[in-house]
Amino acid sequence: MKKTETIYNKNADFWSRNKPLSLSDFTARDYLFKYLGKLNNLKIADIGCGEGYCSREFIKFGAKHIIGVDSSKSMIQNANKNVFKSQNETFIHADLKRNIPKEIFKCDIICAIFLFNYIDNNNMQKIFNQIALKKKKKTRFIFTLPHPIFPFIYKKKFPFSFTNNSKDYFDSSNKCFDGKIYRIDDVILPIKMYHRTFEKIFEIIRSAGFNRIIHFKELGVNKSLINKNKKFFGPLQGIPLHILIEV
Ligand SMILES: C[S@@+](CC[C@H](N)C(=O)[O-])C[C@H]1O[C@@H](n2cnc3c(N)ncnc32)[C@H](O)[C@@H]1O
Q: With a 6 A CB cut-off, is 54 part of the ligand 1 pocket?
């Protein structure tokens, strides 16, 4: 299995975008932006920021300052290239498993959009512990993940899939699956997913000291997406694809 940094350094240019392109831009990030609404004057941490697509959207929604963190040098280079207001956006190259830049704890919102599917249970727990301990009292923490059941129920390859040799939802916890997600223009983006059960996700949240699930959403394709492009979204009708949680 290839290292996460290798995958993202190699594919950084294919991730760069200024409009929805990847399947999950339509099925998860669009929901996130609507859920967050206006971000007037807020400071947002985008952990696992990639090439900064979400960061740039946060600025469009009014955010005052963005701190992005990513372990791929090429993704950070692209984030710096793609910024439109460089004084408002700071992108830091760091592996969050080893080093969580302290600036993120001062933010009003911490977002981790498809970050923790690259991080094993132990390290996810450590990062959650640090966030719960060090964030400001009113800081919101929101994260998305592939839906835990998705690799076990969707067996087609297009337009989103994981190679899951194990058929056991329970015994596969903390196993890492290689995957692919398509862009709407048919470019394929390689991805990875540490599988964890819902039980494990809630255990990590609780053990870190978060005592409330503020929002929980299971995401998939909706009718308007299918009407827009049946070939691309149609195969996923009725399939749970991702989850979004605010704690
Ligand atoms: C699926 S991409 C999502 C990027 C961005 N959040 C978005 O929504 O477009 C996952 C990102 O997490 C980053 N990542 C994975 N493991 C990481 C780690 N341990 N520390 C920092 N970034 C990490 C990868 O380099 C990659 O850019």
A: yes
